[in-house]
């Protein structure tokens, strides 16, 4: 029997996105795999009053167990209320690659799924996406599709180069599939190495604007949008890490994208970096410490501060809940 996400207190993305597009901001989509990450996300979004999308990847399901993740998300709704914030919370499958995976998530209480058919030929992508939409909409679950391929590692497929989204395809894709939002490729990429060192990191906002003209007001999603803050990378390296030449998307460019049709921005790597830096610091400064709470606690605080900063200064979602 399909779990009703509405009974759990979750929401789909429809209203979130309509408000975000109208208000010129984007909803944060933060990935979680464990309790500390989830606590940090909820604490941050309650404190700054931001709606939030909790993202679960296939890797997260393998790592943490899908049943546990689902109950953690259900717990997060109650936790947010306990903290005094009745913020909209969506539980979203990140990079679903098959119909079966999307169906399984919908059955266990997800309120939104991504079907990422971007590696398939165009017609196969349309067919797969439409199949997921037809199933998901029966349960009022919203669906994100993707057109164009991001460079870097996505779905365990490594693409050396971006295949930018072709603006001339978006209208046809959106109308034939019935998707609720569209992830596009404009130069963002997954992970901490998004641009060659010494080059000028720039995403193709011109392609975004061209897409917007073709499907005005339609919710656009940006994956691979970590900014890889220099000070966090420096802190990882200061405490024994070896991250060389890590470069992310400049925050001002994401802010500009969020002011237009981009209404969901995916951030995972920055959180991984912030946690790693905080944990390494404790290990170096207090080598006699062996209570996980003593290093996961500071990591959680660092994550929370990072997420608050994103909501306020990058996404513009603070105060919108
Ligand atoms: O899109 C990638 C996300 O950062 C999730 O990463 O598949 O390693 O959990 P993951
Ligand atoms: P980053 O690796 O840039 O954080 O992107 C995360 C992402 O797109 C999750 O789907
Ligand atoms: Zn992604």
Structure description:
This protein has helices at residues 5-8, 14-23, 35-48, 58-64, 66-82, 99-107, 122-137, 167-177, 205-214, 230-238, 251-259, 269-285, 292-315, and strands at residues 27-31, 52-57, 89-96, 112-115, 142-147, 152-154, 157-159, 181-184, 220-222, 262-267. The protein is α/β, with parallel strands linked by helices. It has one domain: Aldolase class I (TIM Barrel, Alpha-Beta Barrel). The strands form 2 sheets. It has an 8-stranded parallel β-barrel, surrounded by 10 helices. The chain has a two-stranded antiparallel sheet with strand order 6-7. Helix 9 links the parallel strand 8 and strand 9 (220-222). Helix 3 runs parallel beside helix 5 and helix 10 (230-238) runs parallel beside helix 12. The longest helix is centred in the C-terminal third of the chain and has 24 residues, at 292-315. It is globular, with a radius of gyration of 19 Å. Bound molecules: glyceraldehyde-3-phosphate, 1,3-dihydroxyacetonephosphate and zinc ion.
Can you tell me the CATH architecture? Alpha-Beta Barrel
Mass-distribution shape:
globular
Helix content: 40-55%
The computed structural class is alpha/beta
- Strand and helix order: HHEHEHHEHEHEEEHEHEHHEHH
Question: What fraction strand?
Answer: 5-15%
Instruction: Note the gap between the termini.
Output: 31 Å
Overall structural domain count: 1
The value of Rg in angstroms is: 19 Å
How many distinct helices?
A: 13
